[in-house]
Amino acid sequence: MTSKPLTEYPSGTIVRVADIDGGQKARSRMLAMGMTPGCPVEVLSGGPTGCRVRVRGSEVVLCCGLAGKILAVENDSNEGPHCDCCPETQAKAS
Description:
The protein has a single domain, classed as SH3 type barrels, CATH 2.30.30.90. The chain has a six-stranded antiparallel β-sheet with strand order 1-6-2-3-4-5. The radius of gyration is 12 Å and the shape is globular. The chain is built from two helices and six strands, in the order ββαβββαβ. By secondary structure, the chain is α+β, with helices and mostly antiparallel strands. Residues 87-94 have low confidence and may be disordered. A hairpin with a 2-residue loop joins β4 and β5.
């Protein structure tokens, strides 16, 4: 799989969460925010210092540590999991 950390995607990109590469505490925190594997996420602004994203209709700001633990793939990719609540691969991050 060609997943990479959320911090490596430019602003305006819509990606899907492929995995969360962190301990139980970080994983639980991300899952509680709605960042489940397969879920589309829109990168609103990003970079090595952190990310502001839209996930399930909410805007979330993540520090670089947490954003770097979220592994994602391009939304139009056939790789990685797909969200059960999103009927299409091309689902918007709303």
